[in-house]
Amino acid sequence: MNNSGHATRGGVAVALASAIIYSGVSVLAKFAYRYQLTPLQLLKERYVIAAIVLTVIIGLSNWRLLIPRSWREAGTMFLFSAVFVTGPTLLYFMAVQLLPVSTAMFLFHCYPVFAGLFAWLILHEHITRTYVVSVAIIAIGLVLLLGATFRSVSARGVLTMLACTVAYGLFAVLSQHVARGADPRTLGLFNQVAPALVLCLLTAGEPVLYPVVFSSRTSLLAFAGIGLSAAGGMFLFVQGIALIGAQRAAIIDSLEPLLSSVYAFLLLGERMKPVALLGGMCIVAGVIVGSLPTRTTLDQPRGRPIGEGMSRR
Within 13 A of 33's CA, how many CA atoms are on the CB side? Predict the structure, then answer.
């Protein structure tokens, strides 16, 4: 019992560390746009650095995880990651360029709404009462967030981020089927390597790492920070899931937009209106409610949370 308690506390600490580290990616990306890279170019740097770092981390912790169980599994995970990770993440980076970091993060975390719909349509999972309550709370948060910032944010940025949430919701649902039986760390690695290779192909003829990355100590720290935060956050998130389960880890991960807002305030000087912040907190609350265990559905006695998946952009 004592060992179980220590494991739980350790898992919570690991998941919290993951949220703290990963929430810095968007802020650093916003800062890195000052070096005149396009979203496609910046995203390539993010994935190339993260893929290298995560390969080293996993290789040192358990090198067998670098080798898929079969070529078929490797091909499936590679193609899936190439399409369903690269696409949503590119939309995300495009939106971050146009929106304040805090607004972008809160909008992105509405994706469980669409994940639930796709889970119902594709996997025929049951609509739970918890999901309905979660959607209602998130909807209230969206009204408050967008209503308070309607005239001060880019409509194109909002639409781009909403498109990202739809695409990411689909990814979260499909990954449950594609990753069935695979070690989450192996899937996480493919989620970094496949987009890195795709983005290198899309920018063929350009340097893998642009000279601007090494132009100053500040730029080097910014770009390295993006890759290290993404890789380290992903690795710790998976470790947290192993220690305390996906539901608890997902709840702790919901703190990410709040932490990003703090970072954006401290590093970029971004400020949110009180009503917009309240809306963002409603979105986080709705996500947390949706992550809680469910006991009843709208059409049968028992069910499990809709759209539950393991992944990060």
Answer: 18
How far apart are alpha carbons 59 and 185 in whole angstroms? 11
Name the residue among 104, 89, 85 with its Cα closest to residue 161: 104
d(CA 219, CA 224): 8
Map tokens 């899309």 to a residue.
Answer: 202
Selection from 2, 3, 15 nearest residue 242 by Cα: 15
Give the Cα separation of 150 and 117 in Å (integer): 26
Q: Which of 299, 284, 297, 230 is nearest to 43 (CA)?
A: 230
Helical H segments across 99-253, by residue range: 101-108, 111-122, 129-149, 155-178, 184-202, 217-244, 246-253
Cβ–Cβ < 8 Å for 88, 126: no
Q: What is the pLDDT along the chain (313 residues), one digit of tens a residue?
A: 455 666 677 878 888 898 899 999 999 999 999 999 999 999 999 999 999 999 998 889 888 888 877 888 889 889 999 999 999 999 999 999 999 999 999 999 999 899 889 989 988 888 888 889 999 999 999 898 888 776 778 999 999 999 999 999 998 888 877 767 777 788 888 999 999 999 999 999 999 999 999 999 999 999 999 999 988 888 888 788 777 776 677 778 888 999 999 999 998 999 888 899 899 999 999 988 887 776 544 444 334 444 444 555 6
Dihedral sign of CA atoms 33, 37, 41, 47 in order: negative
DSSP state of 214: G
Distance CA(157)–CA(244), nearest Å, equals 35
| C-beta of residue 277 within 8 angstroms of C-beta of residue 138 | no
Residue 216 backbone zone (phi > 0: left; psi -120 to 50: alpha; other: beta): beta
